[in-house]
Specification:
heterodimer; A: about 130 residues; alpha/beta; Rossmann fold; five-stranded parallel beta sheet; 5 helices; about 15% strand; globular; B: about 220 residues; mainly alpha; Helix Hairpins; 6 helices
Chain lengths: ~130, ~220
Amino acid sequence: MANQLRFLVVDDFSTMRRIVRNLLKESGFSEADEAEDGVVALQKLRASNFDFVVSDINMPNMNGFQLLAEIKKDDKLKHIPVLMVTAEARKEDIVLAAQQGAAGYIVKPFTKATLEDKLNHILKKMGLQ
Amino acid sequence: METGDSTPGPGDGASPDVHHKIGQLTRQLHDTLRELGLAEKLRGTAEELPDAKSRLSYIARLTGEAAEKVLNRVDQAKSQHDQLTTETQRIKALMVKDPVAAVAKGHIMNFLTDVEQANQALDQHLTEIMMAQDFHDLTGQVIARVVNLATNIEDQLVQLLIQTAPPDAVLPKPAPAAPDGEGHPVLQGPVVNAEGNADVVTSQSEVDDLLASLGF
């Protein structure tokens, strides 16, 4: 069931979107789409069904915090777990993300094992694994 | 004796009057900068220059590490590939010579096990090579900050030019001000120097510990 989940990967750097999508594929999650910022991500989330969001924070137009806030205040989207994958390493940012409802927080640069570990942890909490 | 004529004549050295005028101009420039708030801005920008230097060093370090990592992985993969090629030729020769013996003595089975292991190793090398490309994202963010600093310096110098130019001078228009971020937290991007900075985490385990300590 878990490997049929549909992911949305949000990052302003195409290289990072590609890396995360490849890692998801290697971990058995081949259903993934991508967005280059929060605005596009929100449009895609509202236009289609996604089960999981992996998002950067520092992005133009709408950053990851703003995207997270929009998702959590939307009744149709707020159930979707959001995993932050970001270079922002300040403690206040990590705490803010958790308070706003992020399901997890990964600091770049990260490893495949870290991503898999966080995904498994979140999916277990969702009862999908 | 003071003559009242401030224009030095040909062959004159720097007269006390010239010194006085330079002093007046310097004071005027200083006061103008202070009144316009530019002195503080310029000082602030100057203080950011060492930070820009450390950011550029960070870019050099990260790109160097990424290149090193990729080259090491390629070396390892090529070495394993060479071994596999040699082994393939050896097994091929055995099969041509005596196929039954090659199977019966376990050469084929051993070879298949080697191929399987080599495939796993190759997959790991490719994943690591892919992960090494994350420097593009991290350095890109840092480069953007350095470019922003250069833009600020340019903007402040243009402002200075405008404020100190003669009234009839043709001047460039100042660059439009950057958006204020609408009160959202100012994001810092990658930490280029975490040493002695207690406000940032330096590893994923510190992130996990922080969130666990807060009950998340």
